[in-house]
Structures are given as structure tokens and as C-alpha cells.
Specification:
By secondary structure, the chain is mostly beta strands. It has one domain: Rossmann fold (3-Layer(aba) Sandwich), CATH 3.40.50. It is about 15% helix and about 50% strand. The strands form two sheets. It has a three-stranded parallel sheet with strand order 3-4-5, with helices on one face. A two-stranded antiparallel sheet has the order 1-2. Strand 3, helix 1 and strand 4 form a beta-alpha-beta unit.
Length: about 90
């Protein structure tokens, strides 16, 4: 399978996400779900991958949100759901 990759910053370094090119079709609506949001780096990297493949991010869902990092500011314009906030 061919894939695309997105490098992003973490609090303590960098990381890379990869996605198969055939995972998203142009026009697909995508809800990005993750266990935790802190700085927002992973969420933004996922958003970028989806958009590069022609998908439309319709929102984000997280089990835990660490509010001190203010990641919501990076995701303005999107619906954001979190089960627990600390």
C-alpha cells in the first residue's frame, strides 16, 4: 500500500503519522477520535492527513482533554467533544 505521512511536534520532540492513500476518498466526512488531547499536535496532524486526501473533517472526539494546553484554540471552527476535562 502507498501511504502519506505527516510529521508533527510533541511537547518533548517530534513524531510521524502515516495513512494509506486509499483510506479516505475525496468528499468523505471524517470524525477524528483519539483517547487524549493535550497540545493538539496529533489532532492537527490527523486533520492534515485527511484533508490532503480530499476528506472533510467534521469534528473531533476525545476521551480526555487536558485543558491547560488550550488545544481547542488550534481546532477553532470544528466541533470538539471530550468526555472528561482536566
Amino acid at each position: 500500500y502507498e501511504s502519506i505521512r505527516e510529521e508533527y511536534a510533541l511537547e518533548y520532540g517530534t513524531n510521524v503519522l502515516e495513512m494509506h492513500k486509499d483510506a479516505i476518498k475525496p468528499g468523505d466526512k471524517v470524525l477524528i477520535a483519539d483517547d487524549l488531547i493535550a497540545t493538539g499536535g496529533t489532532a492537527i496532524a490527523c486533520k492534515n492527513l485527511v484533508e490532503r486526501l480530499g476528506g472533510k473533517v467534521v469534528g473531533f472526539a476525545f476521551l480526555v482533554e487536558l485543558t491547560e494546553f488550550k488545544a481547542r484554540e488550534l481546532l477553532k471552527g470544528y466541533d470538539i467533544y471530550s468526555l472528561l476535562k482536566f
